[in-house]
TrEMBL record:
Family (UniProt): Belongs to the IspD/TarI cytidylyltransferase family. IspD subfamily.
Reactions accelerated catalytically: 2-C-methyl-D-erythritol 4-phosphate + CTP + H(+) = 4-CDP-2-C-methyl-D-erythritol + diphosphate
Residues the UniProt record annotates as site (Positions MEP for the nucleophilic attack): 163, 219
InterPro entries in UniProt: IspD (IPR001228), IspD/TarI (IPR034683), IspD/TarI_cytidylyltransf_bact (IPR050088), ISPD_synthase_CS (IPR018294), Nucleotide-diphossugar_trans (IPR029044)
Site keyed Transition state stabilizer: positions: 15, 27
Protein name: 2-C-methyl-D-erythritol 4-phosphate cytidylyltransferase
The keyword Cell membrane is annotated on this UniProt entry: no
Protein encoded by which gene: ispD
Functional description taken from the UniProt entry: Catalyzes the formation of 4-diphosphocytidyl-2-C-methyl-D-erythritol from CTP and 2-C-methyl-D-erythritol 4-phosphate (MEP).
Gene3D superfamilies in the cross-refs: Spore Coat Polysaccharide Biosynthesis Protein SpsA, Chain A
Length: 244
């Protein structure tokens, strides 16, 4: 059994630019603690010995820049760069097509813009995929969750979802390669568009297990998120320095 990882990194970061006067670089290329966000994410997976290859999907116009970064940060041995698509699902699909995996190999998908993923969580997700066939990292809900209906006057609550029945889906999200390919093929055949892999696996009838995530593994999405990620990296480097 081999383990592969796909990093969709072809987004254009519209939410990061929202409200700002000037357009910003796609968030996966912004720098935190002196290193591009994408490189932090690649490093996290490259550091896990069981991960054999990482396929990163980027816009055609970014191929050169990413290939140069992969070389600069010494990641060429494990990382392959492919062209992404117009939606996250399409980017993952392109990477899956480029992946030479057997039915029972493990494939994990991780948002390139979650740079604070840690080795232990990656390892636990791999183990859960091996055990259950498919698994994602999820964060138990701490807030009370409301279902709403959007109206012209704003949102109106229609019900309360018991929070013990809710997790917030993070990444990595993984499955045995055969199941992941089947889920993507069925979604494509039906014209289904999902925002994560689990939604495709669920509709393909695959049971997906949940591994406990942490708030630290957040998706860098809005402007303030950069400062928060910077803070976490600062704390981590001080903790490492203190341990020496
Ligand atoms: O913004 P969003 O939540 O969709 O981004 C999640 C991940 O999907 C990001 O790493 C982003 O770069 C990636 N993505 C992609 N191709 C797209 C859109 C998003 O690889 N067309």
């Amino acid at each position: 059994m081999r383990v592969f990882c796909i990093l969709p990194a072809a987004g254009i970061g519209t939410r990061m630019a929202a409200g700002g006067a000037t357009p910003v670089a796609p968030k996966q290329f912004l720098t935190i603690a002196g290193t591009p966000i994408l490189v932090h994410s690649l490093r996290a997976f490259a550091a896990v010995p069981r991960v054999e290859k990482i396929i990163v999907a980027v816009r055609a116009t970014e191929m050169e820049r990413v290939a140069a970064q992969v070389a600069e940060f010494g990641l060429t041995e494990k990382v392959v760069v492919v062209t992404g698509g117009d939606h996250r699902q399409e980017s993952v699909s392109h990477a899956l097509a480029a992946l030479d995996c057997a039915e029972d190999d493990v494939v994990l998908v991780h948002d390139a813009v979650r740079p604070l993923i840690d080795s232990a969580t990656i390892e636990r997700t791999i183990d859960a995929v091996v055990k259950h066939g498919a698994a994602i990292v999820g964060l138990p809900a701490v807030d009370t969750i409301k279902q709403v209906e959007r109206t012209a006057d704003g949102a109106i609550i229609t019900s309360t979802i018991p929070r013990e029945r809710v997790v917030q889906a993070q990444t990595p999200q993984g499955a045995l390669c055969g199941l992941m390919r089947k889920a993507f093929a069925e979604a494509e055949a039906d014209g289904f568009a999902g925002t994560d892999e689990a939604s495709l696996l669920e509709r393909a009838g695959v049971q997906v297990a949940v591994v406990a995530g942490s708030a630290r593994n957040f998706k860098v999405t809005q402007p303030g998120d950069l400062e928060l990620a910077e803070f976490y990296f600062d704390v981590m480097s001080k903790t490492l320095a203190g341990a020496k």
